[in-house]
Amino acid sequence: MISTAAELEAIWGALGGEEAQACLFCGQPEHAELHEVWGPREFMVDTCCEGMHQAVVEFLNEDPKGAARWLNEQGLAAISTGGARRIIDDGCGHLVIDWNLQMVSVEQRDAKAFVRAHHRHCPPPAGWKFGGAIRNGPGDDGVIGVVMVGRPVAKAINQTKVMEVNRLCIREDIADGLQWNACSLAYGWAAREAKRRGAHRIITYTLVTEPGTSLRAAGWIPEARVRGRSWNTPSRPREDRMEIVDKIRWSRTLVRGGPETPLPVDIDSLLEKFRTPRRRAPAAEDAATKKKAPQVTEVTSGAMG
Asked: Which candidate, 4, 24, 107, 218, has a CA 20 to 30 Å from the CA of 248?
């Protein structure tokens, strides 16, 4: 273990690339370098002795961003575009590489398979215009999420100038730190790609109970509360696979002069308004109660015989 701040500073100086000096622990020339990387995020560091190894581990834990810079200089940046952004705990006591996130193209069939495997409450949508995969590390195992964009599901919304993020799915079986900023990145990328393809506006929906933090970070704004409804109709009987709940529609205007939604002064207040169920006027409630009240007919016990 490192006993003084001076010793720790000396170790960090050695890791920063200064000329090798005698190791504080073994007396040999200080040696600490990236030895091996495997899988999407696992890595191994080679050191001159056990004492130096412990010092490196402390360094990786104490300064996640500084550790990433050091490993990038050791050759990590050449493995995946952008290199590492941090070194984090995977939740099981192991340090892993948190790579800089990337958006890459994805085929519809692969996006659907990912949603089936990882989305907590929705199946993959039928519509498709384009989609992207969120990558945190190299290889197929490095994909941590997908975003799927298509036409608006609501037919009343312009089907040629508006696109909709029909599904955004992030893996939940990985460390929270690996998901950091993934949703905001995907929403921002989807908006830019929709604009590139000629859309004037892009929309999506969240459950009324969801905060929409990632959408706000990506520049989207809430514009309406949409009442939940069943897809089961007399003309087309279907089974409802999900709970019917109200949702909030979010949007982002992509073309100047388009149908812009004014940016509210206080988004929190607007969200609170949308999340508060509307109450009917008392008169309307009374009328509705009278209309729906069953007709009760009193009968004698003799009539029931």
From this structure: 107
Q: Rounded to 5 degrees, what are φ and ψ at 118?
A: -125, -15
Helix (H, G, I), strand (E, B) or coil at 287: helix
Q: Cα 171 to chain center, whole Å? A: 8
Residues counted in the chain: 305
What is the spatial distance between Cα 221 and Cα 106, in angstroms, rounded to a whole number?
Answer: 27
How many other C-beta atoms lie within 10 A of the C-beta of residue 134? Answer: 26
**Rounded CA separation 229/242 (Å):** 11
236-264 pLDDT, tens digit per residue, is: 776 666 667 899 999 999 987 655 455 55
Residue with tokens 């169920």: 277
Please give, one letter per residue, the 3-state secondary structure of 48-70.
CCHHHHHHHHHHHHHCHHHHHHH
β-strand pairing of 102-105 with 130-135 = antiparallel
pLDDT digits (tens, 9 = 90+) for 70-108: 999 999 998 888 899 999 999 999 999 999 999 999 999
| Residue segments in the chain with a per-residue pLDDT below the cut of 50 | 1-5, 260, 265, 284-285, 288-291, 293-305
Contact partners, residue 68, CB within 8 Å, separation at least 6? 76, 83, 84, 85, 86, 87, 97, 98
Here the tokens at position 260 are 């812009």
Q: What is the Cα–Cα distance from 62 to 58, expressed in whole angstroms?
A: 6
Nearest-10 Cα torsion for 38, 43, 47, 51: -140
| Overall pTM surpassing 0.90 (yes/no) | no
CA distances to 4, 59, 241 from 95, rounded to whole Å, are 24, 12, 39
Burial of 44 (0-12, 13-18, 19+ CB in 10 A): exposed
DSSP three-state, residue 159: coil
